[in-house]
Specification:
The protein has 2 domains: about 150 residues, 3-Layer(aba) Sandwich (Rossmann fold); about 180 residues, Rossmann fold, CATH 3.40.50.2000. Helix content is about 40%, strand content about 15%. The protein contains 15 helices and 12 strands. The strands form 2 sheets. A 6-stranded parallel sheet has the order 3-2-1-4-5-6, sandwiched between helices.
């Protein structure tokens, strides 16, 4: 199906996903939709937590922030009032078309009650009755193509399947101040390490990260650990095993500052995670350790990347509750060192 742009006045695009990686890999589709509906009233809904990711793509008057945290933590009464107010804001937009890239519980309700006469999403979605245009997605492709195919279904030509983000000057200055305060300078190259993520089945062991961090620091790289506040304990455990100096920025950087850090880094090393996708979107070379997830579907979207797995696999590696994830636990530090050396050599000759 192709939408006749001339008959559309107001466009609502929804991507209020709580997972940062999903938002990042949807950016080529979002950018194509913005260009395709240029000159129309265009509104984008994203999770409020990701304001700094999207600020370089679209001006804030065209963004409506989904207040997920407020909805999840407020009292029942305040939650209900906030949701009514949020939906009132959506209805006032009077969208002609709602394009739901996420197709989740929250976005399907917003789409259903938006008032849009044309409501678009993937065919396999949580509330199929909320949509009157359903897109059959290809199988076996990266998740980015799921969003691209939805954009293409409404006539938006997507010329690139990767969108390169850039940090803002304000975030770069803010980052420089924080790096200076902990003794980091521009004299030696930076390597960013993210050792945490949500599930046990995606976590390369602490001992492996400690071995690699010490090895890099001994080679005169400035090793910087990043992550959310909930990852501080794991990172502290790694740092306690080290013989050389590294730097701990876990829970300290905003997303915009993290983007600026990736821009300044020679390499990102980490598990399959949102920050891994964000680093790839910044064009940073990535070495990613994967467990049960399919890298064909979820791998980093950048030219210089290597995905690593252990040599052993469980009989059913799709089991997310697995307590002995051989697929990642058996990955050796030597294999990680080799991948790092390969990418750093490419970076130095490019």
């Amino acid at each position: 199906m192709s939408i006749t742009v001339g008959k559309v006045n107001t466009v609502l695009t929804l991507m209020p996903d709580k997972h940062i990686g999903n938002l990042v890999v949807s950016l080529p589709a979002i950018h194509a939709l913005i260009k395709h509906f240029q000159g129309k009233k265009f509104y984008l809904i994203i999770d409020k937590a990701y304001r700094e990711i999207i600020e370089s793509i679209i001006s804030e008057e065209h963004i409506t922030f989904y207040p997920r945290k407020q909805f999840n933590t407020a009292s029942y009464l305040r939650r209900a009032l906030s949701y009514i107010d949020f939906m009132h804001t959506i209805r006032k937009m009077q969208p002609d078309i709602a394009i739901d890239l996420q197709g989740g519980h929250a976005s399907s309700l917003i789409t259903l009650f938006s008032g849009a006469s044309t409501r678009v999403a993937r065919s396999l979605t949580h509330r199929p009755y909320a949509y009157n245009v359903k897109v059959n997605l290809s199988e076996g492709k990266h998740k980015a193509y799921s969003y691209i195919e939805i954009a293409a279904a409404v006539g938006a030509p997507v010329s690139e399947n990767v969108y390169r983000l850039q940090s803002t000057r304000a975030r770069r200055v803010s980052l420089e101040n924080k790096l200076r305060n902990i003794g980091l300078g521009p004299e030696r190259p930076l390597i960013t390490v993210h050792p945490g993520v949500g599930r046990l089945q995606k976590l390369w062991p602490v001992s492996g990260f400690a071995t690699i961090a010490d090895w890099l620091a001994a080679r005169e790289y400035q090793v910087v650990f990043i992550g959310g506040p909930g990852e501080l304990e794991r990172t502290s455990e790694i740092i306690s095993l080290l013989s050389h100096q590294t730097y701990n920025l876990v829970g300290i950087l905003s997303l915009g500052e993290l983007m600026a850090l990736f821009e300044s880094s020679s390499l990102f090393l980490g598990n399959d995670s949102g920050p891994m996708h964000l680093a790839a979107a910044m064009g940073t070379p990535v070495v990613a350790m994967f467990g049960y997830a399919d890298e064909t579907r979820w791998g980093p979207r950048c030219e210089k990347s290597i995905v690593l797995r252990g040599q052993e696999r469980c009989q059913d590696c799709s089991r997310k509750e697995c307590q002995d994830p051989k697929c990642i636990n058996t990955l050796s530090p030597d294999a990680v060192k080799s991948a790092i050396e390969t990418l750093l050599e490419k970076e130095s000759t490019s």
